[in-house]
Amino acid sequence: MAKWAFVAITLACLSFGSRAVACPVGDGEGAVRPPRPVVRNVSLEASAMLERASRLESAASSHEARARSLAQEADRLANRARILRDQATFVNVADRSSILAIADELAARAREDRARAAEDRAQASELRLEAQNLRQRALVLVRSGSGGGWRTRPLPLSNGSAPLPSERGVTL
Description:
Elements: H1 2-22, H2 42-88, H3 93-144
Helix pairs in contact: 2-3
């Protein structure tokens, strides 16, 4: 019976003692935790940049398509306004002012459409420039190999020149 009591007390002390050792003592400021290494996944970051660049390129294409359709609509409206002005000379003097007012309204709408088309083209240009910058940043990121690890460590060379792929055991 004494043996069972001793075993039970020993187990209880060990279980409570191990919990106390696992927890830091105090308010936590005195506890020193080893720093975690920062691991950058370069290929993941680069592919995310390339994905964003393709989305920007797609948005630029849609802006460009909308600009083309607005320019076509503006040309159509300007053409209709010109035809109305030409035909206003053959119409009764009383109706001429209303036809010219309609032609002026069509010309104003054509100018607005051309302005919106220019804005869309400018936005498309900005988006394409941003996509190009993202692609260049991804390329620099991949080329720099700043992700760490065994692949980016330089190989020891005795003569100071870079080994050929065949010298490293790589066949192309």
